[in-house]
Amino acid sequence: MTYEGAALEAAxxxxxxxxxxxxxxxxxxxxxxxxxxCALVGANGAGKSTLLALAxxxxxxxxxxxxxxxxxxxxxRERFAYVAQSKPxxxxxxxxxxxxxxxxxxxxxxxxxxxERIAYNDGPEPGARIRKLSGGQRTRVALxxxxxxxAELLLLDEPMADLDPLARQRLTGALMAExxxxxxxxxxxxxxxxxxxxxxxxxxxxxxxxxxxxxxxDEILAAHRRLTGMQGEFGQHTxxxxxxxxxxxxxxxxxxxxxxxxxxxVEEPSLEEVLLAHLRNPDAPDLRTRSATPAPxxxxxx
Amino acid sequence: MTxxxxxxxxxxxxxxxxxxARRRGPHGLLWLTLRVxxxxxxxxxxxxxxxxxxLLWLYDxxxxxxxWDGCGGPGRPACPPVDEMRxxxxxxxxxxxxxxxxxxxxxxxxVARDLENGTAxxxxxxxxxxxRWLAAKLAVPGVLxxxxxxxxxxxxxxxxxxxxxxxxxxxxxxxxxxxxxVISLAHVVLGLAVGALAGLLAKRTLPAMGLAFAAFLPxxxxxxxxxxDLWPRVGATGFDAARIHSDPVLGEMGFVKxxxxxxxxxxCYGVASPADLQKCLDVHGARDLYxxxxxxxxxxxxxxxETGIVLALxxxxxxxxxxxxxxxxxxxxxxxxxxx
Amino acid sequence: MTVPTIGSRRxxxxxAPDRSGAARGPRGLLWLTLRTxxxxxWCWTILVAxxxxxxxxxxxxxAEADRFAGYESCGTGPGVPECPSFDYMGAFDIGAAVIAWTxxxxxxxxxxxxVARDLENGTAxxxxxxxxxxxRWLTVRLAAASAVVLAxxxxxxxxxxxxxxxxxxxxxxxxxxxxxxxxTGVVSLAYTVLAVAVGALAGLLAKRTLPAMGLAFGAFLPxxxxxxxxxxxxxxxTHLSGLKASQVPDDADQISLGLITDDGRRINELDCxxxxxxxxxxxxxxxxxxxxxxxxxxxxxxxxxxxxxETGIVLALxxxxxxxxxxxxxxxxxx
Lengths: 302, 340, 335
Description:
The structure holds three protein chains of three kinds.
Chain A: E1 6-16, E2 23-33, E3 37-42, H1 48-55, E4 63-68, E5 80-83, H2 95-105, H3 112-120, H4 135-148, E6 153-157, H5 165-182, E7 185-189, H6 193-199, E8 202-207, E9 210-216, H7 217-222, E10 225-229, E11 238-245, E12 248-254, E13 265-267, H8 271-280, E14 287-288, H9 296-300
Parallel strand pairs in A: 3-7, 3-8, 5-6, 6-7, 9-14
Antiparallel strand pairs in A: 1-2, 1-4, 8-9, 10-12, 10-13, 11-12
Chain B: E1 7-9, E2 15-18, H1 28-36, H2 38-63, H3 84-116, H4 119-125, H5 130-162, H6 174-179, H7 183-202, H8 205-226, E3 234-237, H9 238-243, E4 252-257, E5 262-264, H10 274-284, E6 286-293, H11 299-326, H12 335-338
Helix pairs in contact in B: 1-5, 2-3, 2-5, 3-5, 3-7, 3-8, 5-7, 7-8, 7-11
Chain C: H1 28-36, H2 38-67, E1 74-76, H3 88-120, H4 123-128, H5 134-166, H6 178-184, H7 187-206, H8 209-230, E2 238-241, H9 242-246, E3 253-261, E4 266-267, H10 278-288, E5 290-298, H11 303-332
Antiparallel strand pairs in C: 2-5, 3-4, 3-5
């Protein structure tokens, strides 16, 4: 990988729609190394779809830069794939013709076998028209277009939304296999945190227009502790969220120093706990690991 | 669907907060129709404003017609900035072709779009019967468009009746006949009906619009051809015939030859005296003139007959549309759309 | 979705990617554009074929109408040939009107279906993330649409010209009437191109199908109306005086006619027109108190110059609109 290992890199992204003064993204900066499966999480309306659309070159940011695979979205158009939340497809084409669409528009990189595997497995007939398919079948076909392109980076906006639990599990398996075999980087926005925990090794939490958490899941989890005890004070540790528990208090903290001071029960939180705590407390400070920080060169270019 | 004022109950039986008090203004299905089609209704209003402005301008030019004679020369007022004939043509054509726009609008915007994206089904699940839904959709914009058409026709008629026969086009000109009378109102109603039926048949926006246009066109052309057969013509001979400035489109004009044969020819019309007429007839070897025509007094009879026929046709088409609706054919065409 | 087996192909491999079914016919984006607008392509083809067929039938009818165009008389009764019951002029008018107004349908279609529909339901984004740049996407669409519509319009214009020039021009409305002027000359091709351009810009601005169609129609209309109103000014008029003015030809576009009075004023008096000789004209002028008659006209020979000037203006306008459309697209997307 000759582009310093960043599949996706952004600095100072600013985006608003129309003339409203509401900025969907405000000074958003992050970096995603290659070969990761990244979960993009955030409240409804936090800007996840906007971010993915900016990354795909479908929108122009009001300010800031975004780079993928070492170039602008326009330059690397052939090397990444994007599936929008509405899984847009042409309703009058059949499934087979939709796959042909992929072959025709990506002449140099199309893998028909890979696309067919995703589209037809438990899915629709080749001759079925798109407008007659169910939501889950449409998702399959839309993902088939993304897989068949043999991209180095997959941007998926809520891909699991229409799928039944079994299909979700299989898709997750397919995505993990992609990364393992081809080193594909995958960014998935999703609401189902429990599933993400098993599959994703990188996390972006988008809120208030910027990345509030960015980095490897392991490192983020390691940076948080759940402390439970009778004492009300949590001292020098940064408290993310605190509430009553029984006759004492429990808090999710980022430790600044030693936590084995004896008076608390210390546990490692789950990813779901960390995310929910941050979502409930918008004022909690940001956390960004080293690999998630954009290169200074990029920041200077803003 | 008015907001109830009684206290609503939560699922566990405890009383909920009182529902909001009734708002003023339109409510129920009327409110829904106005709100959903707000953009296009404002569009019609804008069109009405522009068209009315143009018509008032035409009226002003027509009213001061005498001043335009010899305009532009020394000591004469400046000529009007726009050729009034072209303005007249533009406005009369606008009124004439308005029913086409109405048909396409009814098919695409009012009916088919809601069928296509599932909001028609939404209304049904909100306790509105399909018949009421369609009736509201046609009536609310329909009343507005008919009001616009009536105002336009009225102003146009005023402007036109200032002009003499040489200034603007005569009463039997297709565009004038449409614009200076009441048939445009009837054609607008027919346009709504055809649009509704087309929308229910095609169920998708674009095909519905195409179908509405393609269905309305032959109707329009048919009426153009058959209009002057709707009322019996008046006959005239001799010098009376010669004095009448009749247009060949209204009937036949010609000679009666010595053998009794009738030949169509417009020579000898417009001669100054019976003696001139006789000379002219001798030149052409004819015995007499014959003329079958519609005098301008036939304007209103033909208008009313055509209005009646068009409205009857509209009634039939509307009945067919409501019938189609009632048999449940107007449902989303796929699971895909049902899930929307 | 099973786990893909080991050994699935990578783009760097030496094997050519599988292009099942893509061997024949148009490739790439052109294939997609044609396939997704198949219904419209068929409609257009059928419409053009039907109209051309109808025009050929009209040609046949014209022969009969031509017979009675000022020579023989017709009527009912013994020894008199029957008048043709077919309204040739009306039919020709309808044909000319359809061809003249086709650009409006083209504009509405280009706006609503060609551009806005794909923007509205996301399939434009689909194409753009399937390795097609937005600029190329728009180019192929506009080019394909223009080619198809131009070809059809060319056929229609040729057919109606053939009918128009085959018979006495007095059988139909004159050359300077809007519909006839549009349908029988090269301006029809220029307006078709402008219609596609206006539709594209409207589609990009409105982004939704029905508003785009309305906007395209509403934007195209003033161009048409303005052209009709100001067409006469596109070429210098010819001024006639004296007997020539009095006998102004029937097929000329009469801009203004009248009398020049003894004190030099020009008034709209038509009494001395159609005088048969100079002597009669003189007598009439003395009677009316005028010095001369004048006529400002466009004779029929101005048909082609006005056609070319109007074509040039319309094409220039189309170029500006297309430039604006691409600029707007560039501004919106990172292309």
